Amino acid sequence: MIDKIKNSCGSLVDLNELFFWLTNNIVCMASLGRKYGGSTFADIMDRFVHLLSGFNVGDYIPWLAWIDRLSGLEEKAHKVAKEFDDFLECVVEEHVNKRTEMDAQCREDQDLVDTLLDVQRDNATGFTFHRDVIKALILVRVLFLILN
């Protein structure tokens, strides 16, 4: 970030974008174990936040929820949800593959995903801990950290 500001000496710097990437990198490192700086994740997040901040008629007047389907809002929400699910599936799969390759002594630098996979493996919750539960918890954590 400092290098980007230094290299743009004499020109305008978009601090919103720089702080977005800073926040994104911190959240991803803390929750997912590595940076996900690609435009795909940023695009999904941007569309998700846009959907959250938009006006949804069905939330305020339930009998007019058909307007959301007609306007395409519902379809956009399903598309973003599917893309988030695919992204999180890749994240979990990366961690599963990484865990099979690493030995027990490297387990000290675990992140949220590794911890959730341990809980799933140990069956410590008393109920079946499916991969969808893991992805949902990751999503809640990432969105909580980014939106707060």
UniProtKB/TrEMBL annotation:
The keyword Heme applies. Pfam families: p450 (PF00067). Belongs to the cytochrome P450 family. It comes from Lactuca virosa. Keywords: Heme, Iron, Metal-binding, Monooxygenase, Oxidoreductase. GO terms for molecular function: heme binding; iron ion binding; monooxygenase activity; oxidoreductase activity, acting on paired donors, with incorporation or reduction of molecular oxygen. InterPro entries: Cyt_P450, Cyt_P450_sf. This is Cytochrome P450. It comes from the Eukaryota. GO terms for biological process: sesquiterpene biosynthetic process. The lineage of its organism: Eukaryota, Viridiplantae, Streptophyta, Embryophyta, Tracheophyta.
